[in-house]
Each structure stands twice: as C-alpha cells, then as structure tokens.
C-alpha cells in the first residue's frame, strides 16, 4: 500500500512538473511573438518583396561573389510609427558574409527616417531572432530533462546560475576602473565549481573530493601558465585581437584560460571521484592499491578524449578567420600566428590542467575514502 502511494505521489509530481513546463513553453512562444512593444528599437515585419537585383563582384585576389539587393515593403510593429508601411532595402551576398536573405514574415530591427512627404524609409540593422533562440533553448531544456531527468533539471539550474555569475563578474570588471579581472574571475571559479558539483552530485563525500580536485587542478594550471608566460616573456602570443580594449590584455587572456579550462578540469574531477567511490561502495574492503590502479586506468581513458575536445573547441572558432586570411593571400606563418597563438596556448594550458587533475583527483578521492572508512 505504501509503495502504491509512493508511486502515485511520484507520478503526480512528474505530471505537475510536465504541465508546468508545457505552460511555460506555450507562454514563452506566445510572448516572443508578441513582445514588440518591449523593444526600444523599431521593429518591422516584411510583408512583400518587390524586386531583387544582383551583380557579380570580384576582389583583388580574384575571389568571386554575387551580391543581391532586395527591395522590401514592411509594417512597423512598435514605436511612434506603429502600423505604418515602410520601404526597405536589404543587401546580402551569396556567401551570406554580413546580412541574411529576408523573406516575407521576417521581423527586423530598423532605423526609421520620415521623409518630408510623410513616407517612411529605413535602414535594417539586424534580424530579430528571439523566436528561434527560444525554440532552440526549449529543445535543449527538454532534451536535457528527458535524458538526465532530475539531474538534468539541476544541470539547467546550474547552467543558469553559472551564466549569471560570469556575466556579473565581467560587468563588475568593466564598471570598475581598478578592478582585477583575474582576481574576480578566480572568486567566480570557486563559486561556480561549488554550485555546479553540488547541483550535479548532491551532498556526498565524493562531492567534496570532486570540488577539491577541481579547484586544486584549476589553480595549479593557472599558476603554471602564469609562470611559463613570465619566463618566456609572452613571446609568440599575439594580443592584437584585444587591441580595442582599454585594459591590460594579459589579465583578460589569463581569465579566459581559467574559465576555459574549468569545464574540462571539473569533468575530470567529477569522473575520478564518482568512479572510485562507486568501486568503494561495491566493495568496502577494496585496497588502496586497487583504487590507484583503477584510477590510473580511468585517467588514461578520459585524458586523451578530453584533451582533444578542449583543442577542437578552441580551434574551431578560428576557422572563419583562417579562411579570411588565406583567401586574401596572407602567408601561412603569419595567419597561424595571428589566429592560433592564443587558442593553442589556451588549449595547452587546459590540457595541463587535465593531466594534473588526474593524480590530484586520485589522491584526493582516496584520502576521502580512507577518511570515510575510519569514520565507519
């Protein structure tokens, strides 16, 4: 009878949660399709496409492209000109390098000018994408909940909190003249690590082991990276992409190294702690030697894949820049130096953190297991 009541309560709780999510989903879709009044910028919905012209262009390197110009008619959806018709033009290339091709029904942000005869003309600044973003966001949420269930929910909460913490930290750095970004980000890393692992793993001894492993490994790699850059005088690093910032690029780069490596190091710390504690829970009498051997095998299995993931994640973002340099005839060495020096350095620093966290996680977890044994 008690089992039936428990199953009934569990099913009822899932039904309430599912209903709540569906209501949120429908409400968010309705909102993003009717939220024009909340924007300060003018929004225009494309109602018709009058004409499309095209021309072929060739640059100095004989790269060919086709440029299209659309002549559009739209209706203003918000602001003082709401409901009025407006004439627009949209220029885009076949390569879609800058602006996208517009279709009837697309909503765009527009800078509006009123002519002397009362006619409205405008310049398109960007396309309104919140509908697509909301759909993709809900797809991510539902996938995570279906696969991870309760842990998926905690992962979503953790992700939201981590995003808020990072954005707030960067905002505080930008708003404060003498703020130290590396110090602020170090504090943020501690908070993010504790919250993320507690949300995912709960309040267990293995959670404490994972938190300690992650923090020790992350700050160890930061110390090694700082020491290496000091000894080499930062030779070979190209900070030109940060030239427009009014702050020292070194601190900003190191903060990026710290945050970029945190995810991989955290994964190693959690994997080591969870795996070794699972072995201990199956056999409370397992020897330290057996745990060490198991930890080494686990480390070997995940070290190579995590290093590759980190490398590909950093380098993939530079593909458009590499193509841009190569298509314009830039030398190979110069192109790689300009686009990959910082990314390769970040990947190497993260890889060092991964390698360090394996023995650190192994030792920390075994110490926690021995402490738990003595406590029992």
TrEMBL record:
Q: Which residues cross the membrane?
A: 15-32, 131-147, 154-175, 181-201, 208-231, 251-280, 309-327, 347-369
Q: Does the keyword Transmembrane helix apply?
A: yes
Keywords in alphabetical order, please.
Membrane, Transmembrane, Transmembrane helix
- Return any one Pfam family short name: YibE_F
Q: Does the keyword DNA damage apply?
A: no
Against InterPro entries, the record matches this protein to: YibE_F
The molecule here is called Uncharacterized membrane protein
